[in-house]
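We store chain and fold; example below:
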Amino acid sequence: MVKRRKRNSFIILASTLLLTGCGNSNLEITQNDILEVARDDANATKKECSNVSIQEEKKYYTVSFDTNTGSYEYKIGKDGIIQERNYKRRNSEEVSTTEPVEEKKEETKSETETKKEEKKESTSFDENQQAAIDAALANAGLGQEDVTDIGCTLDEAAQQYTVTFTFQDIKNTCMVDAATFTVLSSIQG
C-alpha cells in the first residue's frame, strides 16, 4: 500500500515537472507537493507526521516534521529536488546528508587500476550489509540483478548503512537504518 502511494505521488510530481518543462508556466509545484516529496523520501505517511512546518524561501522550501522514529528537516528546491536533508533519531545524534559536490581529481593509471581491483575484491557482504542492500533495492523497486557497482558501508556510530549502486548509468545512494533496515533517504545522481 505504501509503495503504491509512493509511486503514484512520484508519478503525479513527475508529470507536473514534465508539463512545467514543456512550457506550461501556469503549473507550479505547491507546498503540498514539496511536503509529499519529503514524506516519500522519509518513508512516512501523512498520519505518521506531526509538527509539520513548510517555509518558502527564494529558491527552495524548508520542510520539517516529526515521526515516531525521529525528526526530519529538508531543503527542497522549487523544482522538487531534495538539496539537503537532516534526520535526528529520537534520543540520538543527528544524521545529515547533502547532495554530493564531486571534486574532480586527476588519477594516474595505477590509482585507477587499484580502485577497480579493490571493487572486484569487495563483492561479498556480511548478513547485515546484505539486508541493508536488499532494503535499498526493494525501496527502489529493483533486484540485485538489475544494478551494478553495489557498495555498502556502516557509519562510524554503527547506526546506518550507506548503500550505493548504479542503475541505468545513474548512481544511487541510500541511507538505511542499521537496527531496523528501514530506508531513511535515497539520492539519485
